[in-house]
Amino acid sequence: MFSFFPIQGGIAVAKGFYCDGVSAGLKPNGEPDVAFIYSDSLCEVEAIFTQNKFCAAPILHYQEYDKNFKTNFVLINSKNANALTGDEGVANVKEILDEAKGKFPMIYNPIMSSTGVIGVQLPKTKIVESFLKFDLTKKDDAKAANAIMTTDRFSKTIAFEVVLEDKTSFKIGAMCKGAGMINPSLATMLCFIATDAEIPKSDMKDLLQNAAENTFNAISVDGDTSTNDTILLLSNGKSGAYNKEAFGFVLEKIMHKLATDIVRDGEGATKLVAFEVRGAKTSKEAQKVAKALSQSLLVKTALFGCDPNWGRIASTIGASGIECSPKTLEIYFDEVCVYQKGMIYFDGENEKKAAEVLKRESFRIICEIGKGTESYVAYGCDLGHEYVKINADYRS
């Protein structure tokens, strides 16, 4: 048995972790745009990266380290993805991190992460000069979370303390960013998780991947997979406490909250929608159709207009390639059934009820396939004029 409860502190809540965000002049408004995460003792580290074949330079640099390397420092910049920048991009990461090690000799095997415009070399001088503003004893999680934002409308942080049956405890804090280029394909954003739990290195990968399956792997804003997507888990073990079941449970809670915050913050989005698929023949088919629904442009635009166009939902299910039949299919907007096993329930009154559901900030679209027992929930949002406006002038 264990208990857990939310606490303040974000990414620096655990023992020995520090963070801050400063302005390097990358954002035109003078807001924080470079952040760091520092641990005063070495951390075990595990990561999940994008499935995009054109991985950004920071990911390529990370992959040059030995498999079981330890670290105590992460540097993050916004406004520039350092992706598709060739060998020079990787060399720039090394040069910047060498400068950081020179200024702060306690830094060991530093990691860099970037987000922003693709195809532009890093402004090295500005980033290095920002190190003069770094104070590795600070715990300003709000500034750190703001610094990594790009088109995000709000910062995304969360932290828990976990108390085990023997009364020992550990803490987990996290922050992430993401609002566009979000597709259910591994990480689909930047997410950093820090804990003082004493996790064996052998547990970290499985815990991270298991938690990602129904969280960051289940969200979509626009169906595009970024070059920089990263989930990074750091553990310095300073609490001396750990329980695999408890850690895995709370880790998934944290990642689920951050993942749905990303969808809620989707560029131009006005609503968070859970696409719950039930009764699929296999788990793979349940995932396939749920993700297809979360990515369908026709479904997304209908949601934006508060139009309960269940025909678009049925069409997407049929086009997904899974085993299905109109004779077993059921479609609900929350509690409102609009189609059931060949019968259409879409008279004036029911259509009005379904339209009212779509006006809510969050709701479920439930699809009972009627071919098996497997289920999956994917998360998506609507798509409207603001998304086009944001991405039409993203580089400005």
TrEMBL record:
Binding site for substrate: 150, 177, 188, 267, 391, 396
Site (Cleavage) residue list: 187-188
Residues carrying the site annotation Involved in the stabilization of negative charge on the oxyanion by the formation of the oxyanion hole: 115-116
GO annotation (BP), single: ornithine biosynthetic process
Record carries keyword Transferase: yes
Catalytic activities: L-glutamate + acetyl-CoA = N-acetyl-L-glutamate + CoA + H(+); N(2)-acetyl-L-ornithine + L-glutamate = N-acetyl-L-glutamate + L-ornithine
Protein family per UniProt: Belongs to the ArgJ family.
Oligomeric form and interacting partners: Heterotetramer of two alpha and two beta chains.
PANTHER family associated with the record: ARGININE BIOSYNTHESIS BIFUNCTIONAL PROTEIN ARGJ (PTHR23100), ARGININE BIOSYNTHESIS BIFUNCTIONAL PROTEIN ARGJ, MITOCHONDRIAL (PTHR23100:SF0)
Name this protein carries in UniProt: Arginine biosynthesis bifunctional protein ArgJ
Organism: Helicobacter ganmani
